[in-house]
Amino acid sequence: MMRNPPLPLLPGYDFNRKVGQSRFHKSQHFGNVHNLSMLLDKALPGIGGAPMPHTVHSRWPSVYCRGDVSTLPAWLAFDKETLVFDAYFKEALQEVEGSPFLPRYVKIYFYLEDGTIQVQEPRRVNSGVHQGVFISRQRIRFPPDSGSDSFVDIIDLNIGREVELYGRVFKIVNCDRFTRNFLNRLGITVPDPIALPEDPYMERRFKMQAGLQPKRPKKVSHDETQFLRYDRCVLRFYGYWDDRESEDGILHKLVVLFYLADDTVEVREVLPANSGRTGATLLSRCKLPKEFKGTVTPGEHDKFTVLNVLGQTAAKRRLIYDALNCGANATSFYTQRDLAIGAVMNVLGRSVVLCDCDDYTKEFYRANYGLEDFTPRPYPADDDVVFEAQDRPRLPPYNGYGSHEDSSYNCKTIYPVAPVKDLKQFLRRDREGLDSRVLRFSAQMISSIPNFIKRPFVLSYFLADDTINVFENVRVNSGFQGGMFFSRDRFVKPGEELFGSDPPACYTKEDCYIGAQLELRDFKFLLTDADEYALRYMELHCSEFPKSNIRQILHKIRERARPAYKQFVSEQLGSEVLRTGRTSFKALRRALINLLGSQITEHEVVTVARRFRVQPEVPVDCEAIRRLAHVELKRYLFNSFERLMETFRHYDEEHSGLLPRKRVYTCLRGARLPLDVELINKVLGCMPAQDGDLVRYEDVINFLDYDHFPTAPTEPVSVRHDLCWLSHAPTVDASVVAVDAFLRELGLEEDLRASCGDAGDNPCGGPGAVAAPSAPGLLGAGLGEPLVQDAESCELVLRRPDAPCI
């Protein structure tokens, strides 16, 4: 520590210069170059990063106060920011006549993040010199004769200045806008750009190339540019062609299509329904001339004119095109500038008036031509006779003979015909394989007689033709015979008029759901339950069955529970349910009925319970699968386990002992393993997964090898039947419901938090108010204690009964 020697070393006469210093290590003067440790020549700072006394600063100090600039390092503050200068240097030429020097145009890049400089020469065609990166990116020192050992920095680069880099003097003539603004903000004045010197050699070359141009210049067409820009862009106008002055002429309403890709026009006629006219295309897509002078001969509108300069016969003649098009007819065609609302087009001698256009056409002319007035022009009055559609004749009332369909078809036709069934519905909803397309419900008869109430019924709804049958199950000593109660038929709803002109309404699939009451021929039935197929089918086709649409049901619950969500959670569900996150079906049903009352049905409650059910996991008996696999392998005398191991090792190129599960399955099937597909999948399911979907194939061999790893014998079973997915289809048990998932699906917790965050001083209903459930707070409370909400922070807290109010 440096101090003043004349002053005594006493408190108050000296101060510590290292106050606030956090770095006390020495700089590392050794480095690793080509895996060799050696002493570096780079000048490094001293202890704590302080510069050494003999060190010469390579960068200029900041002109601003320390507190006025950003504390970020330069590599972060000026990341991807570069100053670009245009410069040139002259290179002497001794062997080129008329060109004593060659100006080389370059770009100087100064990177602000580290002060490095890069010089790059843009490439020019046939320049004769190597171009590209002239000086690679690095920090460049001043030349030795300048007397300075520092590097070229930002203050040395400006328009009009000359900078020497490795013996070449570069004259800076221009810079980009970012560089000019950056230097101006630093207080550096940037002069106006300087013109670059002309290259005498390149000027001579341009004059020589200009003299090599052909006398007959080739005609170049730029249709590709227009095609690429306006491909599939069509202007659509609506107009008419009034042909009523001619004999039997009418008013034709037309649609004019102008294709911007090639300036072609197409005209179509709008034919009204039942007009008796065909051929809607009035003009096929082509270029439309403004003046119609008759039929165009082939080649009259061709772009080029072909001249025969030699010979009269086909063998000796020579054909060239006329570049000047001396004999071409000047024909003007319609373009996009000629089309507008109210304009009259000459379509091959027919006057077509444009009255309106579509939205795209309006936007096109508004953006390209600045038009704003697109008022439609009215069509002339059409004197055609318009026949109004008459109502269908009303059918006579039903007389009771046959069905309503038979009577209606006999009234519509002279000869009696059978009614036509809806074949589309039949083909779409009829039985398909094991899919029966039949919805079965358990029903209970509604009657004042107690014995009738106990009779079990099964109501089946056939989706193929909307018919219903009712079957009564036989009960022992019930006094009822059982069997078919109602045969398959369509049942009319109560209160419908049977002997009317319109057919009565019958029960449809929307009327069949759990909790519905159906009156079938004076017998009332209550649908109490449904089988798994019916419930699953209705859930998969929820757009046709609104009672199984979980989105509509949750929306109904959400809208009803939104005003009193906190009371619904605390009173209906309870703290114990919220602690475990599980509840029974009866508790959920009671809570939903108390909330919605008659607005929710039993089927909707079942749909909610099935949606958020807790399905227990069924463990796989791997030992039984192994014994069954050994029985099948012994029965077919399979013992090629060594060849199977060779196959696995062939595909294991990394010799890791692991293969993807799909590859193992392919090898087992390719080795003709005498096991059913279901049994192979069960065997692979018993293998533990390694690193995702990888399986250790040695474990598969040991699992199947009955010689080295025998198992107890077991009885053979039908693998195709017992292991089929239909035989072990999991039964849906909705007796336990996940309340936490149900509350998350409702999404009212986020709304409650948002309302609490946007409210005033007391947003949550006052002190001690019961809080709404939340995933981390309410469902994880764990003690069954009442939850309250802090009036100031809107956070959920636990409060014991003996604790004072917040």
Automatic annotation (TrEMBL):
**Gene Ontology biological process:** regulation of neuron projection development
Asked if the Swiss-Prot or TrEMBL record annotates the protein with the keyword Zinc-finger, the reply is no
Q: Does the keyword Phosphoprotein apply?
A: no
Compartments, as annotated in UniProt: Cytoplasm, Cytoskeleton, Cilium axoneme
In terms of InterPro entries, this protein maps to:
DM10_dom, EF-hand-dom_pair, EFHC1/EFHC2/EFHB
Q: Which SMART domains match?
A: DM10
Q: What do the Gene Ontology cellular component annotations say?
A: axoneme; microtubule
**Gene3D superfamilies recorded:** 2.30.29.170
Spell out the PROSITE patterns in the cross-references: DM10
Q: Where is the DM10 domain?
A: 79-187, 231-369, 435-542
Q: Which keywords accompany this UniProt record?
A: Cell projection, Cytoplasm, Cytoskeleton, Repeat
Origin: domain of life: Eukaryota
Q: Where is the chain membrane-spanning?
A: none
Please explain the role this protein plays, according to its UniProt record: Microtubule inner protein (MIP) part of the dynein-decorated doublet microtubules (DMTs) in cilia axoneme, which is required for motile cilia beating.
Name listed for the protein in its UniProt record: EF-hand domain-containing family member C2
* Source species: Megalurothrips usitatus (bean blossom thrips)
